[in-house]
Amino acid sequence: MAERKKVLVLGAGYAGLQTVAKLQKQLSEEDAQITLINKNDYHYEATWLHEASAGTLNYEDVLYPIASVLKKHVKFVKAEVTKIDRNAKKVETTNGIFDFDILVVGLGFESETFGIEGMKEHAFQIENVNTARQISRHIEDKFANYAASKTKDNKDLAILVGGAGFTGVEFLGELTDRIPELANKYGVDQSKVKITCVEAAPKMLPMFSDELVNHAVSYLEERGVEFKVGTPIVAANEKGFVVKVDDKEQQLEANTVVWAAGVRGSHLMEKSFEGVKRGRIVTKQDLTIDGYDDIFVIGDVSAFIPEGADRPLPTTAQLAMQQGEKTATNIKHILKGEPTENFTYADRGTVCSLGRHDGVGVVFGREITGKKAAFMKRVVDTRAVFKIGGLGLAYKKGKF
Ligand SMILES: Cc1cc2nc3c(=O)[nH]c(=O)nc-3n(C[C@H](O)[C@H](O)[C@H](O)COP(=O)(O)OP(=O)(O)OC[C@H]3O[C@@H](n4cnc5c(N)ncnc54)[C@H](O)[C@@H]3O)c2cc1C
């Protein structure tokens, strides 16, 4: 019997787990030795982190054990990847060194603060399950503190959000659902709560039309959110954000400060590959990288430029999952000695939630708002878990 090839998948996010989910159906134990490495023994739905951060969804509902979706012939290793040696075909981790014949890198995103002074130290980041749990607990603690204290520091009820892009707006939507619950629980006058969103660019949600943006803004403003658009944040400190207005610096104060304005690919990418920008490497059309036909780079660590286009597609879970599926197909081709296929992206649309009951989006080219958008968001979220774990997982984790 020919020696079994070693297929090593790094990261069990949308990209890595989708690769393995498809690969384990296509390949038997005799075909290849498949190993998946991830730093936690659970997968989390990164696209639900704004809910866990606001506390509208329990953090436990955002995750599930990776082992629960793996077949017996896939080996799972809980470890943090510390080094990828592409030429020696070895990956170093906190749990040993692994060699590979075919490598899939799906190490995902990290928060990007663009060098803004104090942002890493003084603002929470919506980055993973742990940071999400910290944010929701912190917000609730501040309400409890306000209710219990005699001096009543209004800053305990003030929340500053940096960024009015997709993540920032989705987080604001959840906050407008969560605040009335917290105010009620702690007997706090809701009119004293102040949520301020600061955005440097002149336009929020740049991927959407003015009509959709206006819908999102008026929905959130009606629920108490104040927007400061076209206002750069120049620093974060123990008091809040320092912003620039008419060339003068102003201090905005709050006891909860959240940065939701940027992500980059894993910092390991710069350490492991050449030509990496903000943790992302440009891939070839079949999702491998230049000079390495057996290394696939997918999801948020990749920059995929479709043929004929001049810029990479925005990194999303939708893209990561489609890339995972194509990678599984291409690995099968390589193992059979066949040529790989090029990846083509099928854009099914984007829906930005505004809490549980509203949203804005474009689905199959049509703009939608309100309850219809909120419903579509639940369909998209449920589909993501169904695609990895089938009906059983969709039943447990789906949003019905
Ligand atoms: C709040 C929020 C809302 C979003 N909403 C949407 C949306 O509505 N639609 C959409 O399409 N996209 C959305 N996105 C973007 C989407 O979440 C990402 O594009 C997607 O998660 C990328 O998938 P990935 O598999 O590449 O990486 P990730 O989901 O980041 O997964 C990477 C995995 O690798 C693991 N890992 C990282 N480093 C190491 C290491 N050194 N060693 C071992 N394991 C490691 C991580 O723990 C994780 O399990 C949203 C993002 C956020 C933050």
From TrEMBL:
<dbReference type="InterPro" id="IPR023753">
    <property type="entry name" value="FAD/NAD-binding_dom"/>
</dbReference>
<feature type="domain" description="FAD/NAD(P)-binding">
    <location>
        <begin position="5"/>
        <end position="324"/>
    </location>
</feature>
<dbReference type="GO" id="GO:0050136">
    <property type="term" value="F:NADH dehydrogenase (quinone) (non-electrogenic) activity"/>
</dbReference>
<keyword id="KW-0274">FAD</keyword>
<keyword id="KW-0560">Oxidoreductase</keyword>
<dbReference type="InterPro" id="IPR051169">
    <property type="entry name" value="NADH-Q_oxidoreductase"/>
</dbReference>
<comment type="similarity">
    <text>Belongs to the NADH dehydrogenase family.</text>
</comment>
<dbReference type="InterPro" id="IPR036188">
    <property type="entry name" value="FAD/NAD-bd_sf"/>
</dbReference>
<dbReference type="GO" id="GO:0019646">
    <property type="term" value="P:aerobic electron transport chain"/>
</dbReference>
<keyword id="KW-0285">Flavoprotein</keyword>
<protein>
    <recommendedName>
        <fullName>Type II NADH:quinone oxidoreductase</fullName>
        <ecNumber>1.6.5.9</ecNumber>
    </recommendedName>
</protein>
<dbReference type="Pfam" id="PF07992">
    <property type="entry name" value="Pyr_redox_2"/>
</dbReference>
